[in-house]
Amino acid sequence: MQIKQGGIAVGNLNLKKYFLTKNLKKDLPSSIVVFLVALPLCLGIALASGAPLFAGVLTGIIGGIVVGSLSGSQLSVAGPAAGLTVIVLNAITSLGSYETFLLAILLAGIFQVLLGILKAGTIANYFPSAVIEGMLAAIGIILIMKQFPHSVGYDANFEGDERFSQADEHNTFSGIFQALGKINYGAVIIAIVSLLLLIYWPRFKKLAIVPAPLLVVLAGVGLSFLFTGTSLGLQDKQFVHIPIVNSSSEFFALFKSADFGAIGNKQVWITAITIAIVASLETLLSLEAVDKIDPIKRISPTNRELVAQGIGNITSGLLGGLPMTAVIVRSSANVNAGARTKMSAITHGCLLLVALLLIPVLINLIPLSCLAAILLMTGYKLCRISLFKHMWTLGLNQFIPFVVTIVAVVLTDLLIGVGIGMMVGVFYILRTNLRNPYFYQIVKNGDKKVIRIRLAEEVSFLNKAAIQITLTSLPKGADVIIDGSNSRYIDPDVIEIIQNYKHNAYTKGIIVQLHEVKDKYDVPPLKELMYNPN
Known about the structure:
Subcellular location: Membrane
Number of strands: 8
Protein name: SulP family inorganic anion transporter
Membrane topology: Multi-pass membrane protein
Strand content: 5-15%
Order of helices and strands: HHEHHHHHHHHHEHHHHHHHEEEHEEHEH
Shape: globular
Keywords: Membrane, Transmembrane, Transmembrane helix
Number of helices: 21
Number of domains: 2
Structural class: mainly alpha
Largest sheet: 4 strands, mixed
Distance between the termini: 61 Å
Main location: membrane
């Protein structure tokens, strides 16, 4: 389609080509970053799960290509999850064989598809923003603390571990002190050089066409060669160890099939249900978190994500992989690297496949300390000081659940920590709702095609799901007025939904006007409400 001379319309094909080219310039460099982050995590999680190393890489490939293609999320990245390592390790042992465990993964995938069809993903609408923000900050802190030992050459704990109690009989804090006593200065130099490149290289606009993480890897490989034979030399365990495939027959021999003969085993079904529930919760938490840090503020379809994850786990069970989820570490690295669409996740899966088939020897030259530097930067961006200041300005009813979630996640694991944060968050929600009844009203003017949403005097967090569903279902091309003139209190989560909707509505041709909707509302004092006859 061509643009008419003197016209103002842009052809659909030309517009799509423009955005595709523009997005690819962001997505391709981002996919390299995600690939570099995902590779050691896939291997480390497979090792900790008692599964073949190939299974970890295979899961990353399926998560990138299969789930990435089917998912409605533009920035989420799926792969093997650290939160499932204990479940996987125990299941493989109790079920007696890896092939029987693969059947449990396949069944778990079927359960996830059913959950998506039954629209169970809407539960994500009820995660308080303060808890999600706390989870993101906690993951950032965990990345910094867990990657510090790898950055100084102490690799006793597996890559990707997020739990406070480690498999090496240490915890997160004692692991750091243990690392300080076993420093490899060659690894330290590589990590410092890597961090300097990550910080300063992007400032050189003309040179920044080469992604900083790729330069970090090249510098790390070069320095490791330079240190060989000296006191700074790295040990074998301080490098990436991807399985080396020498022929096509050897490659296909790595795949394993599920043992369908164990379909009547009760323990298989219990394991499948456990994996489906835990994987779905982690996926929904990660999806909600990624949408929060998406600079374009898109809203990912949660039910579609459960279906995509289910198909991914079915595929993984059929081919010999591990259970997968949407993973916040990989996803946040994807966002921080500047990705714009799902092409980044899909391409990272393709890169994992290429690395396994064509260049495993080269990949095994990469020091873990330079990859640790990439994760350290990702962690720093997730737990930046400005986030704490922002949460403080929202008031104690937001700041306390935020901090409690951080502490709980750091000292336990992701799901337990978020569960504790949710309980504190719900306490503050109920505390607010005891003082703030809520409703909202929609008035349509059919002649002018204007939709007016008049918010009530008090709008609570419990309105979040209903308001979000209402806004996303509004017709394209409408004018929308959101009127808060009568509102004495609007929950921060609802304000965030309204502002994100206004930010993204132009993509549907919707013009949004906010009338007296403030950025922040103070919770009315209980004393004032007690003496207010209304």
